[in-house]
Amino acid sequence: MNSLPRLLTIQDVSCVGQCSATVALPLISACGVECAVLPSAVLSNHTAGFTAWTFHDLTGEMPAIEAEWLRQKLTFDAFYTGYVCEPQIAPILSIMEHCAAPGAVRIVDPVMADGGRLYPGFGDDFPAKMAKLCDGADWILPNLTEAAFLLGREPVLEGYGEAFVKDTIAGLHALGAKNVALTGVSFDPALLGTAVSDGASIRYDFNPRLARSSHGTGDVFASVFAGAILRGLDGLAAAALAADIVCASIEATADDHWYGVAFERTIPLLASRLAQ
Ligand code: PXL
């Protein structure tokens, strides 16, 4: 039997909140991909909607962990980064450079903003730092707000057309990203989707827009996308599967559950879609 591909995800552990590592580990495992985790920080809960949280930065651990992996010759077939903070960018770049198996894939979700605003705790200078992580990535997965901030522009969230998406994606490739999956794209109020670009052409995937939007869906999308890419799907197929799992997760979530989505209920669907 072949070994499973081994992916390292680097993002926080929000103890409660159905986001970041607590989403990535189960979903990437459900894809049939081994998921190692380097926690960037430990928070009591996430910062979107809860009124307070604890935050313990783990940047200081990163160089020692890298040194130990190098000593043991541990390498990864893929890296998937999510919510990280500024001092971690350099240690993460070092790990991605030194602990990569031949042909390792870098997937960067530049988690920092949504709905036109940066998440609490990120300063206006952070997007330029995050852009450094995007340089050289095989895939970046920004939403429209993150894309605008990466490019130093004001977010435009409605009233745009294909020319705007094309121009935004060209800017993201100019940052050094090889492929882009731009999420939250909509040309018709009834549809919401992803623009997927390899630098030569842009293809779109759309799903019906759901009445409800929920926290943590970006992490569900990125985790399934990363797992699907490692399972050999192309970018558009990975984005379409990820979006289907996001929609199914939202639909599976109780009306009064506010801080995340019940992605747990979609794990059988995810595993069966990848078994086909
Ligand atoms: O879902 C993205 C995310 C991850 N981790 C933490 C967050 C957020 C979004 O707010 O606060 C700690």
Each distinct ligand: 3-hydroxy-5-(hydroxymethyl)-2-methylisonicotinaldehyde
Number of domains: 1
Order of helices and strands: EHEEHEHEEEHEHHEEEHHH
CATH homologous superfamily, by name?
Answer: Ribokinase
Strand content: 15-25%
Helix content: 25-40%
CATH topology term:
UDP-N-acetylmuramoyl-L-alanine:D-glutamate ligase
What is the arithmetic mean of pLDDT?
97
Number of helices: 9
Q: How many strands in all? A: 11
What is the gyration radius calculated from CA atoms?
17 Å
CATH architecture: 3-Layer(aba) Sandwich
Order of adjacent strands in the largest pleated sheet: 3-2-1-4-5-8-9-10-11
Uncertain residue segments: none
Cα distance spanning the termini: 19 Å
The computed structural class is alpha/beta
Sheet having the most strands: 9 strands, mixed
Please write the CATH class name. Answer: Alpha Beta
Morphology call: globular
